[in-house]
Write a structure and sequence with these properties.
CATH topology of the largest domain: Jelly Rolls
Shape: globular
CATH superfamily of the largest domain: Jelly Rolls
CATH architecture of the largest domain: Sandwich
Strand content: 35-45%
Distance between the termini: 31 Å
Largest sheet: 7 strands, antiparallel
Helix content: under 10%
C-alpha cells in the first residue's frame, strides 16, 4: 500500500485525542471526555490538538468519547453540526439554559442540529460512549458559549482568549496583548433561535427505523438511508430525509453483501465504519475498515466499496457537495 493511501486511513485506535479541547475542560461533567480531529481541526480550542488529515475537504470531521454523565456544555455553531452515534446513549438538550427540549440518541442514530441555537450533549450510558461529528465548511467557525458556562469556566481558572486560544491560570498568566472573551449580554442572546422537541425530532433519523431505508434496486443487496443532500449510487438518485443545507451529503450503506461498483468523484469523499468490515479499493490499492475506522478517498481516484465480513455491516459516507 502506498504512503499516500495509507496516510488517508484513520484507524480509530491510533488517533491522538485532546483531553482538554475546550474552555469547559475543568468543569464537572466536562472533565472526562476526549476530542479527536480526523479531518481539519474542527472547532477545538486546544491549539495543540492533533489533526489526522489537514487537507481541505469542504467539511471537518471529529469524534467525541466521554465517560458516563460527561459531554459538552451549551454552545452554538455558525456552520452545520451533524452527530453520528457509534456507541452508547447520548442526551442532547438545548436553549440558553438547556431547558427547551431534549432528545436521546442511540447507536447508529444521526441528528443534524440547526445553526444559531445553543445545544449541549452528555453520555447517559453506564460506560464510555463514542460519537463522530461532521462540521460544515473548511473553516467551521468558532463556538459561542452561553454566558453561564463561560463564567463558570473562568471561575475554574480556564480562560478563552479572543484569538480562541486557552489559558489555564494554574499553569500560566495571561500573556501581554491577549484579551479574554467576554460573556454574551442579554440583548445578544435574543438573536439566537429556539426549537421545541417536536421540531428537533424532524432532524433526527433513527437507525432502527426501517421506514427510512431504501434499496438502490441493485441485486437487493444495499439498504440505504440518505440523510443530507442527494445521494447517487449505481445510477440512482436518492433524496435526503433532512433538508438542511450543510455543504456535505451524508448517507448510510448497510447490508451483508452491501457494495458500490467502481466510480470516480472529483470532490472529497469520506467513509466511516459503524459495523462490519469494509474493503475500499482506490486505483487498485485496498484499505480495510473495521468499526470506528475511517478513510478519505483521494479526489478523482477510481474506487469501489464492499462489505466483507460474514455479518451485516453499516458504513457512513460523507460527500462534499458545495
Amino acid at each position: 500500500m502506498s504512503n499516500s493511501i495509507q496516510s488517508r486511513l484513520a484507524k480509530f485506535d491510533e488517533l491522538i485525542p485532546s483531553t482538554v479541547p475546550f474552555v469547559e475542560g475543568k468543569l464537572k461533567g466536562h472533565q472526562d471526555r476526549k476530542n479527536y480531529s480526523i479531518i481539519g481541526p474542527g472547532v477545538s480550542e486546544d491549539t495543540k490538538q492533533n489533526v489526522k488529515l489537514i487537507e481541505a475537504h469542504g467539511f471537518n470531521i471529529g469524534a467525541v468519547s466521554a465517560a458516563p454523565m460527561n459531554g459538552s456544555g451549551l454552545h452554538s455553531h455558525t456552520t452545520a453540526e451533524v452527530f453520528i452515534i457509534h456507541s452508547g446513549s447520548w442526551s442532547f438538550y438545548w436553549g440558553v439554559n438547556g431547558e427547551e427540549g431534549e432528545v436521546i440518541l442511540n447507536t447508529g442514530d444521526v441528528a443534524s442540529f440547526p445553526t444559531n441555537m445553543f445545544r449541549g450533549f452528555k453520555n447517559v450510558s453506564d460506560k464510555e460512549a463514542l460519537m463522530f461529528v461532521v462540521l460544515g465548511e473548511n473553516d467551521p467557525g468558532i463556538i459561542t458559549w452561553t454566558p453561564k458556562l463561560l463564567k463558570e469556566a473562568n471561575e475554574s481558572g480556564m480562560l478563552l482568549m479572543e484569538d480562541r486560544s486557552l489559558i489555564d491560570l494554574d499553569k500560566q498568566n495571561i500573556p501581554d496583548g491577549k484579551i479574554v472573551t467576554k460573556p454574551l449580554q442579554e440583548k445578544e442572546l435574543q438573536a439566537f433561535d429556539h426549537y421545541s422537541s417536536e421540531e428537533i425530532e424532524k432532524f433526527v433519523i433513527r437507525y432502527q427505523d426501517t421506514t427510512m431505508y431504501v434499496d438502490d434496486e441493485h441485486y437487493n443487496s444495499n439498504s440505504i438511508i440518505n440523510y443530507l443532500d442527494s445521494f447517487e449510487i449505481h445510477g440512482k438518485e436518492i433524496e435526503p430525509q433532512i433538508l438542511h443545507k450543510t455543504g456535505f451529503g451524508l448517507s448510510l450503506l448497510k447490508g451483508t453483501s452491501a457494495h458500490i461498483h467502481s466510480y470516480t468523484r472529483d470532490r472529497s469523499e469520506f467513509y466511516n465504519c459503524l459495523s462490519g468490515e469494509w474493503e475500499v479499493t482506490c486505483d487498485d490499492e485496498k484499505v480495510i475498515l473495521g468499526p470506528r475506522d475511517s478513510f478519505s478517498a483521494p479526489k478523482k481516484s477510481k474506487r469501489s466499496v464492499k462489505q466483507i465480513s460474514r455479518d451485516e455491516g453499516s458504513l457512513f459516507i460523507v460527500r462534499e457537495t458545495n
